[in-house]
Design brief:
This protein is an alpha+beta fold. It is built from 8 helices and 11 strands. Among the domains are: 107 residues, Immunoglobulins (Immunoglobulin-like, Sandwich); 108 residues, Four Helix Bundle (Hemerythrin (Met), subunit A) (Up-down Bundle).
Length: 322
């Protein structure tokens, strides 16, 4: 307990001794004379201990009338190990546009939130630019500048030449048009080539070729295989017979095909077989056998080939080895 009291006594003694130490503040001017409009720098400095608090002066736009503040720098801190003090400094850039001598008043610091400390005064002399009155020689004026013509001046200067050029150009254009219309043989009109129309069965067979090459059911993707197979079949029926199958179930699609007089009953039976395999793969727990997958493909291909549009002109029909 006694040691604690002694330690606290030493601590408070050192603390208040440090506070009691004198804080030093000062102001330095890098140049006491400047030319009007030029700049000078004032450096404010304060030397304090760690436990002491110091506030720098709050500056406005000017120090006194005639001396303006251009810039107020940040406060820099440097620690001195020699005497365990901190040197705080701030740089202020000033200027003046009125010649004369100015006595800059002391800058006021606030120490420990209670004591006001003042710096030394500064003297600034602002000089005007010296004019050499002994120089009496007369200097030559600048020579005449050759300025380019403006667009308006150019038009006014060469208006007759421009008018003649426009008339000549118009005459040439008229001659060319006259020659093309009356003297030159009319060009043969290009015969518009008929647009190539791809028949529905060509599209279906091409997509079936691609589906077979993907080998989906062989790699275990049975549902995807039947989804793409029935999509090709539905698209073909819609393009061939104008039967909308996009929003229809398998049963509704088959019923629509049964009502269509252009589709034979044998073909409808093929559709029933194909859609039954597809529904088994997509909705039932069991899957069609490998032979059934091949059979669904061959039935789809046969349906397309047996119901394709017959053209008067011979075609190169694609075939697939099912």
């Amino acid at each position: 307990m006694v040691k604690k009291i002694i330690f606290l006594g030493i601590f408070y003694f050192a603390f208040f001794s440090a506070i009691a130490q004198k804080i030093e503040v000062k102001a330095l001017l890098d140049s006491s004379q400047i030319v009007i409009g030029k700049q000078a720098k004032i450096k404010l400095q304060a030397s304090v201990y760690a436990v002491q608090a110091i506030k720098f002066p709050l500056l406005q736009d000017s120090i006194i009338k005639g001396v303006e503040i251009v810039e107020i720098g940040e406060i820099d801190t440097v620690f001195s190990k020699a005497n365990s003090t901190y040197l705080l400094s701030q740089e202020i850039t000033i200027t003046s546009f009125d010649s004369g001598s100015y006595s800059l008043p002391p800058f006021v610091f606030l120490a420990n939130n209670r004591d006001s400390l003042r710096t030394n005064e500064l003297l600034l002399t602002v000089k005007t630019i010296a004019i050499d009155t002994t120089e009496k020689s007369v200097k030559d004026i600048h020579s005449v500048y050759d300025t380019p013509l403006t667009f308006k001046e150019f038009i006014h200067e060469y208006k007759y030449w421009l008018l003649a050029g426009i008339l000549l150009l118009a005459a040439i254009i008229l001659l060319v048009l006259y020659y093309k219309r009356w003297r030159k043989k009319p060009l043969e009109q290009e015969v518009e080539k008929p647009k190539k129309i791809t028949l529905p069965h060509f599209i279906a067979i091409e997509k079936l070729e691609k589906l077979k090459a993907e080998k989906l059911w062989q790699s275990g993707k049975v549902k995807q295989y039947y989804t793409e197979l029935t999509d090709i079949l539905r698209e073909y029926i819609e393009n061939r017979y104008k039967i909308s199958t996009a929003e229809q179930t398998s049963t509704e699609t088959i019923e629509a095909c049964e009502k269509n007089i252009g589709i034979q009953s044998d073909r409808v039976s093929e559709l029933k077989l194909i859609f039954s395999f597809a529904d088994l793969a997509k909705f039932a727990k069991s899957e069609p056998l490998a032979d059934e997958n091949d059979l669904a493909f061959s039935k789809t291909l046969n349906f397309v080939q047996q119901t394709k549009e017959v053209q008067m002109v011979s075609e190169n029909v694609k075939t697939i080895n099912a």
